[in-house]
Amino acid sequence: MTKKIIITAMLMTVIGGLTLLAGSPFSGSWSSEIQIEPTGTFFKSLDSTIDVNYSLGGFVCTSESDFHFFGGFIWQGFGVTGILGAFNIQGDLLFGASTADFIYDQLIVTTSIAGIDFGFYAAQLSDAVLQGPADGFAVRLAGNAGVLDIVSIAEFGAQIEDTEDDNFNGITIYHAATGLHKHYVTNPLVVGQGFTGEKVTVSGWSFGCVEDIATTLYMTCEGFDFFRFDLTGIDVGLSWLTFDVELTFQLQTKSIVLTPTLVLGNAACIDVYAAILTDAQDNTIYGGFASLTGISLYGLGFTYSWDGVTVRDLTVLDTSCYAITTPEYGSAIEEITEALKDGHEFYPDYWELISIEVVGDGCCGGSSTFLANTYFNKNETALFGWGMTHIEVTIPINSMIFLSGQVEVDTSGLDHIGFGFEVGW
Amino acid sequence: MANNRRATRGVMAVRMRLVVLGLLAVVLVLGLSACMGGWFTQEQNATLIIGQPAISGNRGEVLISVTNMPNQGLASIAIKDQGITTTNIDPTSVKVEGLNGFTLLASEFVGTHGCLAAANSTSGSVGGTILKISFEVTAANPTFTVNKLKVSIGSALNTLITTWDLNTDTNYYAK
């Protein structure tokens, strides 16, 4: 008992002491959360992240450490961002702490001259990673010509993430034993730095019936790869329906994919989630799938806020394709395929959420929050089909230290209790 | 007013020239350097990754992941009877959980062997974690191994994936 009191006192002293660094070149945060389950082996998880920033002459240096309950000390990352003359510089360095391996590094230098944005992206991946070793760089130029936006990316063994193109996703590095992962925008693909690809995108064309037209040409070292037209928001004369068209030419094939979009007006308080259905599994039109088969009303939502209190209700009507994301990912209705693609966690078995969130001023700076989410299960036979209740509370000790607690109860009883803190300095 | 218009047109013309010149420069550089240097494309095989057991106290976890899976990704996996071999793991404590859209269809762990089947009904996984196996350990250094000959994997296009590697010793992989 005495030991516990001493450890608790020491922890509080350290946490409090870190806030004394305020005003120094050092800043950062330490967040940690422990989850305890009443049965089994007591500890369910322990996650901890420490960020330390050091500001010097316009540069900010960052250190980020990630710990996992089963895996221990997993990642040690370092970063630097700053401005050197006309250049913006960002550097990242990642080590695998548990195996003492260098994993990845990245350097990004950007500048803007006479309306043209220049970017230099370089990265290396170590042979400790399954797909390594690899290294390379890419040069990005972007500018305007009248209403047109022109982007040219020359690839020398590396690709840059393009959020609007699924073929260019950056790189996500996983720790195989724990699943913890890190994401970066520069993806090195090969050893050596010869020319490997060139992508030119011209967008901003607009005709009366089409909102935006973009063209993308991609050449690789082996020659022509693809040429693509993206037509967004084609007006077909119906106020509730638009189409996006993707027309792709490859060396020996041509493909066209139409994505119908249902245009709904602004709802007063009830949000309706609906989509156009086609005879294709992904609800697009291509190849032999050319029929619009109906409209799917897959969810309903209600949100009302007053005096810091927000009440939400979400109902998923089509649980085979849609789900409610976890509180960490905004508790929203999302298509399961999109959630999986974006790495969002969701509840596959719950079809309804009733949520109350209260945000108030803390006693000593910062805000206190209370969140209670109750979920209803499609497979349970409990009262009203109740499935699980998740409660989170965050209380500020001062403007820099926050304590948090959470409780999760499901139909089998108390699932876990969690405690955490976040201290900034 | 007319001077302002002329000046604006002049600025736009200069910018346009710069953009065109910039793009021409890139094309020229690429033309001159095309394919010189190394173009040593790494062979990116589809890989099923069995993570090293992560242990804390008397509890442990093994993650099963995939990377570079073809045909819109892996959507089903079956490890046949005795396809899994364990040591120092309590078979009665083994719990298999589907991750990222995967649902466990069946599993059985008896003695030092096990089998399981899981599927994702909505989409395939090109890369990432698909299954988590948690257990209690009975002695130090527990092991969890899979026999590749007893594993079948299927794609989101409902086709068998026949060319793939089994990796049990990597600590990191990328997607």
Key terms for this structure?
heterodimer, A: 22-stranded antiparallel beta sheet, three-stranded antiparallel beta sheet, 2 helices, globular, B: 175 residues, alpha+beta, Immunoglobulin-like, 2 domains, six-stranded mixed beta sheet, 18% helix, 44% strand, elongated
Describe the model.
The complex is a heterodimer of chains A (425) and B (175). Chain A has helices spanning 2-18, 336-342; strands spanning 26-36, 43-56, 59-68, 72-84, 87-96, 101-113, 116-125, 134-145, 148-156, 158-160, 171-175, 181-184, 186-188, 190-191, 197-207, 210-220, 223-235, 241-250, 254-262, 270-278, 292-306, 309-316, 322-325, 333-335, 346-347, 350-361, 367-377, 386-396, 401-410, 413-424. Chain A is mainly beta and 425 residues long. Chain A has a 22-stranded antiparallel beta sheet, with helices on one face. In chain A, strand 6 and strand 7 (116-125) form a beta hairpin. The mean pLDDT of chain A is 84. Chain B folds into two domains: 1-33; 47-167, Immunoglobulin-like (Sandwich), CATH 2.60.40. Chain B has one helix and 14 strands. Chain B has one helix at 2-33; strands at residues 40-41, 47-50, 54-56, 59-67, 74-87, 95-98, 103-110, 113-119, 128-136, 143-146, 151-155, 160-161, 165-167, 172-174. In chain B, the strands form two sheets. In chain B, strands 2, 3, 4, 6, 9 and 13 form a six-stranded mixed beta sheet that branches.
Short recap of the structure:
The complex is a heterodimer of chains A (425) and B (175). With 425 residues, chain A is mainly beta.
